[in-house]
Amino acid sequence: MRSVSRRRALQVFGLSVAGANLPRVAFAQEPPFPKGAIIRTLLKDYAPEELAGGATLFHEHLQLAPDFNARFAAASAAARAANGLPPLPARGGAGRGAPAGPDIMHDADLMSEEVLKAKRE
């Protein structure tokens, strides 16, 4: 076993104390947002600097691509096959069911109505 000299121990201790006392700002990096960038949310637009200073958790999906469901179903089927699982049974039944309602994913007016309704509730 190698012994540590007193000089080396004091060097390590001194560096540890110095590192522990550095301000947190010394480790921060500016986010790479272009000048004038905004972060758009349901309730208001934010400048990136307004959300700095801590963790910010948000998650909003209001619109998906027109072919999202078909692509997701294909990816799910491929994943099931790759894992040796049988395909999912077909959906539906004997009848055609009720006619499809309005498509909220592609109707901006309906989407706006629903968001405002959620805000009121």
- Apparent shape: elongated
Give the quaternary arrangement of the chains.
single chain
Strand content is: under 5%
Number of strands: 2
Let me know the average pLDDT.
Answer: 81
Biggest sheet: strand arrangement? 1-2
Largest sheet: 2 strands, antiparallel
Radius of gyration: 28 Å
Give the CA-CA distance, first to last residue. 69 Å
Order of helices and strands: HEEHH
Q: Tell me roughly what share of residues is in helical segments.
A: 25-40%
Residue stretches low in confidence (pLDDT < 50, at least 5 long) are none
The total of helices stands at: 3
**Which class best fits the helix and strand makeup?**
mainly alpha
Q: How would you characterize the overall build of this protein?
A:
The protein has 3 helices and 2 strands; from the N terminus they run αββαα. By secondary structure, the protein is mainly alpha-helical. The chain has helices spanning 6-20, 68-82, 108-120, and strands at 39-40, 45-46. It has a domain at 1-49. The chain is elongated and about 85 Å long.
